[in-house]
Each structure stands twice: as C-alpha cells, then as structure tokens.
Amino acid sequence: MAEITIKNVVKRYRDGYPAVNDVTLDIADSEFVILVGPSGCGKSTLLRMIVGLEDITSGDLLIGGTRVNDKAPRDRNLSMVFQNYALYPHLSVFENIAFPLRLRGGRSDEQIRKLVEDAADTLELREHLSRKPSQLSGGQRQRVAMGRAIVRQADAFLFDEPLSNLDAKLRGQMRTEILRLQRRLGITTVYVTHDQTEAMTLGDRVAVMRKGVLEQVASPRELYEQPVNLFVAGFIGSPPMNFVPAAVRGGTLELPFLSVPIRPEWKDRIGDRTVFIAGIRPGHFEDADLVDAAKRERGVSFKVQVDVTEWLGNEQYAFVPYEAPADIAQQLAELEQELDSEQVRTQLCVSVDPSSRIKDGEQAQLWLDPSRMHLFDPMTGQNLTRGQGQAATAVSQSRASELGSVPTG
Ligand code: ADP
Q1: Is residue 12 included in any domain, yes or no?
Q2: Does the CB atom of residue 208 touch ligand 1 within 6 A?
Q3: DSSP letter at 371?
Q4: In this structure, are residues 258 and 367 in contact, taking their beta carbons and an 8 Å threshold?
Q5: Which of 168, 202, 225 marks a domain boundary?
Q6: Within this chain, do residues 69 and 174 fall inside the same structural domain, yes or no?
Q7: Is the domain of 78 the same as that of 169?
Q8: C-beta 39 within 6 A of ligand 1
Q9: Could you write out the DSSP letters of every residue in 57-70?
C-alpha cells in the first residue's frame, strides 16, 4: 500500500496538444480517488501515466515517496483492471488469477494455490475456479480481473472504466462490490469513469477533469454543494443544476420567475457585476403548498406556469419554461457552447415531492431558500458564492473532520 503523488504532470502527445496539463494531486494511502470528466478530458492518459503505460512529458510521479517516472510498469507494483478485463480465454479462472504470480516466479505451486484460493474466497469465486471466462457472467469476469489484482498484493489498484460494459443493474451491484472490497482491503485506488454516479458513490475524493486540467478535487458532498465553477456544477448532479440568467437591479437579484433581495453575504463577492448565472439544484425547489409556515418564512414563494410533469414514484419533476432577457441570452448561448452542454436552457427542471399536486399545464406555487442558490460569473464561470449559505456550513464541518483523518500530503 502506498500514497501516490502527482506533481505538475504534463502529457503532450506527438501533436503537441497537452492531454494532461499541469496536474497536481496527492492521493493518500488507502484512499479511493475517482478521476471523472467528459470523454477526452485526459483521465485515461493520467491513469496510464501512473501505471507506466504512457511516458510523462514533464512533472513528477511518486509512489510511496519514490519517484517512478522512469520505472517500467512491472517495477511499480501497481495493479490495473481494464474495461474488457483482459482475461485469457483459454485459461481457467484459477490460472487467470494465478497468472501474475507465475509470471513473477519465486513461489511454489502450493504458495500460489493458497494465494489464489484466498483471493477467490474474498471475491466469492471459489466454486468457479475450474471454469473458463466464457462460462462466467460479466460480473464474475470482473471479479476474476480483480482477483488477479489482489493476489499480486499491489501497492495500488487502478481501474479504467471497469463497469462500462455491464448493464445498469449489474453495474450497480459491481459498484457496491468494488466499494466493499476496497474498504476491506484498504488499498489505495484510482478509478477512472465518465459516470458521475460512480464518481459520487465510490470516491473518498473526486477529481473532476476538463480539457486536461483538474477543475476541482473534493469529497462528493463538497463537489455537489460547493462546486468551484459552472463546469463542475453542471457535471455533478442528476438531473443537472439549473443555470438561470440573473441581473442585479437596485438591491434586488432578478431571475425570470422570481426576485430576491441581495443577501448581505453576497455583496462582497459579487462586486460591481450586474449579470450572473444563478445555479439552482432541481431538488432545492419545493411545492409551496407542502412547506410549513415556519419554513416558508425563510424562503421565497413564487408562481410559475408548469409545462409538463414526470412522476417517478420516489420523485417528481416539473418543467417550467421561461424566457431569458435578450441582453443575457447571447451570453448564455456562448456559455452553452463553451460548456458543451444543453444545460443552459430556457426551462427549469424542478424536483418536488411525489405527493405534490402540481399538474401539467397549470400554474403552481414554488418555494426556494435563496441561500441555496449559487451565483456564477458568466464570463469566467467562477462560483462567486462558494463557501457561503446553508450548505457551506455542513461542508466545512465534514471537510474539517475529513482533513483530520485523511493525510493530504
Ligand atoms: P479520456 O480518458 O478522458 O476520455 P484520454 O486520456 O483518452 O481522455 O484522451 C485525452 C486527449 O488526448 C484526447 O484529446 C485524445 O484524443 C488525446 N489522445 C489520447 N491518446 C492519444 C494518443 N495515443 N495520441 C494522440 N492523442 C491522444
């Protein structure tokens, strides 16, 4: 087991494009870190540099305190689990798991048998040891691939999108298995995915990448509640955060469907800017009819025209069209391109309690606690209100206890 230190690491492929651009990240011993981001953001490249399958253009990579930039993959004692499992079809499960031990040599058949059987017990594969990979389910093959990683007693596990070949149900099960196993074994783990659910559920910390750069590294909770910028805010969370044009007029922040007084804690942060993108999570709206009187006072109620609703049993979405003021519409269009997403829309997604009586095509009274709202600079995308409001208190407390228990250096 070991910590992994990534210092100012750059990767330029032959065309000169920096696929990974000055990434610095300390991964603590036993920590589970997720690299997440859209396709092409450089996460696989970063993982492949850690494992040694890709040269590092500049910067330093340390494993257990030793610089390993120039070490061959087999000398790094890391174990990689690939998306296609890379199992040998003609070998039994036993031999597939034993493979790295035989390759290394120095162990008797008896020692190998013991190690393979122990790993098979951990992974509940004992009764499948004589089978061939083709006789296993996708989930079992995945476990064999992990077994191969376990017997090597590697310093760290590296996963490259290991679940993306599986159907949704199995993916959920395997996700839980990987988490359980990682917790039990306490092995430092770096896990690449483009799936934000995997990122949020598996990681002690999640590193969000975009265009070769680390945008934010934080606990899932902090990413969700205190995103540093529009990109992270839009990437994390499902359904995604609503991005709504907002403008300051007098002492009021005006959105297309509501106005709120400028909060004292916003004043210093927003400076003399007059236009913003307000970020509101769908779940932060509530059906005003279901909010009790005491709570109602802490927020604002406002009327909207509902277009359609979607009732999903455990939650209910309502979609509310609105018109962005012309002066902000252009900026929003540019932002949409920049973010490569359709999140900057002229429609709100609101997630209300399933018991809500909000109906298609009718008016509804919604409620919002404005302290949950984020204000983003429309030019830089920076979250101006980060570290404030109701959510921030909980985060700083959990962050403090995390920092107390997880060494970051
Ligand atoms: P991700 O894993 O996030 O999808 P990658 O790390 O695979 O992203 O790729 C990051 C960027 O580097 C992409 O623009 C990709 O096209 C480029 N890239 C990846 N591998 C190579 C390569 N062998 N040669 C040149 N460019 C590459």
Answers
A1: yes
A2: no
A3: G
A4: no
A5: 225
A6: yes
A7: yes
A8: yes
A9: SEEEEEETTEE-TT
180 and 280 housed in the same domain: no
Report if residue 406 sits inside a domain.
Answer: no
From 13, 82, 190, give the residue whose CB has the most ligand 1 atoms within 8 Å, as the site to mutate.
13
Q: Are 346 and 375 found together in one domain?
A: yes
Atom of ligand 1 nearest to the CA of 46: 6
In this predicted model, what pLDDT tens digit does every residue of 393-407 receive, in sequence order?
A: 444 444 334 433 333
Residue carrying structure tokens 């929003």: 332
Atom of ligand 1 nearest to the CA of 38: 3
* pTM tops 0.85, yes or no: yes
At residue 312, the 3 state secondary structure works out as coil
Give the domain range for residue 196.
4-225
Ligand 1 atom at minimal distance to the Cα of residue 15: 25
Total of domains in the chain: 2
* 90 and 132 fall within a common domain: yes
CATH number at residue 353: 2.40.50.140
* Residue 408 domain flag: no
CA of 45 to the centre of ligand 1 (A): 6
Tokens of residue 155, six digits: 């310093």
What's the first-to-final CA gap in the chain, in angstroms? 15
Does residue 18's CB lie within 6 angstroms of at least one atom of ligand 1?
Answer: no
**CA-CA distance, 68 to 205, in Å (whole number)?**
23
Q: Is 402 a member of any domain?
A: no
> Which class for 348: exposed (0-12), middle (13-18), buried (19 or more C-beta within 10 A)?
buried
Shortest-distance Cα residue to atom 27 of ligand 1 = 13
Same domain for 200 and 143?
A: yes
Encode pLDDT of 53-103 as tens digits: 999 999 999 999 999 999 999 889 898 887 667 789 999 999 999 998 998
Question: Which residue's CA is minimally distant from atom 23 of ligand 1?
Answer: 13
Mutate to test the pocket of ligand 1, among 9, 45, 50, 51 (most ligand atoms within 8 A of CB): 45
In this structure, what token pair is assigned to residue 409?
Answer: 């250096």
* Same-domain status, 356 and 282: yes
Regarding the beta carbon of 42 and ligand 1, being less than 6 Å apart is answered yes
Instruction: Kindly report the protein residue whose alpha carbon is nearest to atom 12 of ligand 1.
Output: 19
Domain shared by 276 and 352, yes or no: yes
